[in-house]
Design a protein that fits this description.
Elements lengths: L6 E5 L11 H10 L7 E6 L3 E2 L3 E3 L16 H4 L9 H10 L6 E3 L6 H10 L7 E3 L2 E2 L4 H11 L7 E7 L5 H6 L7 H14 L3 H5 L7 H4 L3 H4 L1 H7 L7 E4 L3 E2 L2 E2 L2 E4 L4
Parallel strand pairs: 1-8, 2-6, 2-8, 3-7, 4-5
Antiparallel strand pairs: 1-12, 9-12, 10-11
């Protein structure tokens, strides 16, 4: 019988997690030990936003260093040479044909993907295909795209949404203290309490208290909907990496971990 891979949401935070020994990076490595190695990964990252749904079709995707020069050269030197999977890309385009999905060979692996996956699979030996976030879609439409992706899990294909539940970079950089603002935890807790059985509230995230300050960046929140949309019946969430910083929550969760 084919192994069913989990569906994950990961709060990816700073790209420095790629090269530093942080609690979040350790959490990503540890969660990968909780289930068999997947045949491939489909990742929906906050850092690939397009007009229309795009599916990365590169056989050898490049490592994209999509961040400013204020970061150290060591981070720009990182390469994560995981292969692509052209057959899977074509399958994805067919699976998402109702959403107008198109193949795209111009993208690669952005830091929302490789900064996390390099800790999960340091040998870069699991093929990865990214699916973009269509800027034209509502949260409910993103959720329906995720539901279409759920069947991939039955073929041991890991579905990952990578963003942050709370993501306010100006609040991060303006902070006068390393302690998170109270709204970081309260908003994160509200969304966490809804992950299991109130997906409508998650998709209506902008109407929740503190949303304007806690979740102003739609592209960082929207990968949450991909993890909950890819959930299968009867699965309950496992939460990990509940780490808070000013303006940022690193909360992550998984559906379908082996018991």
């Amino acid at each position: 019988m084919t192994t069913r891979a989990p569906a994950l949401f990961v709060g990816h935070g700073s790209p420095m997690n790629a090269i530093e020994d942080t609690p979040s990076a350790r959490g990503w490595a540890e969660i990968a030990q909780r289930f068999p190695m997947p045949r491939a990964i489909v990742c929906i990252s906050a850092h690939w936003v397009t007009d229309g749904v795009k599916v990365m079709s590169n056989a050898h995707p490049r490592t994209i260093h999509d961040f400013g020069r204020s970061f150290p050269q060591e981070l720009f030197d990182v390469q994560y040479p995981a292969p692509g999977d052209s057959a899977l890309a074509h399958r994805l385009a067919e699976t998402l044909i109702a959403f107008g999905a198109e193949l795209d060979d111009t993208w690669g692996l952005d830091h929302g993907t490789w900064s996390v996956v390099k800790h999960m699979y340091p040998d870069a030996d699991v093929p990865i295909v990214q699916v973009s976030l269509d800027i034209r879609r509502s949260p409910s439409e993103h959720y329906e795209i995720a539901r279409a992706l759920a069947e991939l899990r039955d073929d041991n294909i890991l579905v990952i949404g990578s963003g942050n539940i709370v993501h306010n970079l100006p609040a991060f950089f303006r902070a006068q203290s390393p302690d998170p603002q109270p709204w970081v935890a309260t908003y994160d807790d509200l969304i966490v309490s809804s992950i299991d059985n109130d997906h409508a509230r998650v998709m209506n995230y902008t109407a929740q208290p503190d949303a304007a300050i806690a979740a102003p960046d739609w592209e960082h929140f929207m990968p949450v909907t991909y993890a909950i949309g890819a959930r299968r019946d009867g699965e309950t969430p496992h939460f990990f990496n509940r780490h808070y910083f000013p303006g940022i929550s690193m909360t992550s969760f998984a559906f379908g971990l082996p018991q």
